[in-house]
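Quick one - inputs below.
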Amino acid sequence: MLKGADDVVMEHEDSASRHGEMTSWDINDIQLPQDVRQIDGFQEWPDSYVKHIYSSEDKNAQRHHSSWAMRNTNNHNSRILKKSCLGVVVCGNDCSTLDGRKIYLRPAICDKARQKQQRKCCPNCNGPLRLLSCRGHGGYPVTNFWRHEGQFIFFQSKGAHDHPRPETKLEAEARRSIQKAQTAFSPSCPRLKQIQELESLTGAAPTREALPLLLSKPDIYSLPDNFRGHISKRSQEPVLGSCSRWLPCSRAGEDRGSGEVLAWSRSPALRSNPSPGRPGSGPAAPCTAPSHQQCTHSSTPHTLPMEKDGHGPFRHSTGPLGDGSCEDKSPLAYSGSSLPPLPYPAPQGGPCPMASGAQHHQQLSVPRRGSEGHDGEVGRHVGLNYCNDDMFFNLYPLR
DNA sequence: GTTTGCGGGCGCA
DNA sequence: TGCGCCCGCAAAC
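Output:
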């Protein structure tokens, strides 16, 4: 089941070879192929040593978009845009939400913004945040190269991400918007109370269309093969308690500072096995977040569910014509009929003591495709109730 | 405020 | 020389 990075490369190469020109070029070549017969669909999560040729009309390609947190890197070559992966921001306490999901935030691209981000706390347990650096390219971050040539945009990725996928840019933006909204709308907001009261009386839930676009796509609950390999290796590591190691939010590591997780292997945050000693551990292995708030900030984390076998539902991103086509779906695509997962309990508690991220996620998340959904047996189709809505409004104030 | 692209500059192999 | 990375700047959102 697990495939190594080499297999991934071979798979991509095989896929690419079917398109002829795909493997015959390198981003540094003086002359890139002009007889491109196959334009790739945009790959939102390119991984491993892949190459793609996009149309110059492709908006995502034009913007050099990637759902990985990629920052611009100066390669002193104005013709080739180089970007390196920033990794993923994880909870330093390796906490899990009530439904066993992990916190995987998108690192801010800007250095200052990223440092500021790391000074914040885990939205789930208020523990410190850690930047899990990407070391998937010979110990260095995975690099992406973009080169515009005529009517095509050539893309090449070097390295295989050795960390989970962060939330997407849209999700991160939405989370920031919600943070602002939460600042604007206090929990005692009369309008909010009015809505809640009305809802409790009528049993009506807010329309999903009116909800912020925060959906974490099923696809992003996946991980590169090499990462799964890491998980397999890490499975023998001692299992540490997650939230028992809760620390006051004093200072998460700076980008290059002490708090940065320098290597995937050093991070306890992303181990495969949920702590067996974790209170209430079970299929969903919830963690009891500290009741006292150390930070005032609040956000909507991107989380990954943990499967019963202890492995996250990480999925290999297949080749250009594989399920990458599904990955092209913007989070917007889910806004109509699905809701974003609400992976952690309401920051301020709320009237429903049983409110849990698990409930919310199971009720609100998009059902995964059969090939990747291994946790579907946990009451997924329960409808919204007042409790959940109440928490929802705490998390997603009206804007 | 943040992202993005660009480019100067430095250190290392 | 190539690469990684830091830093600052400007434009755009």
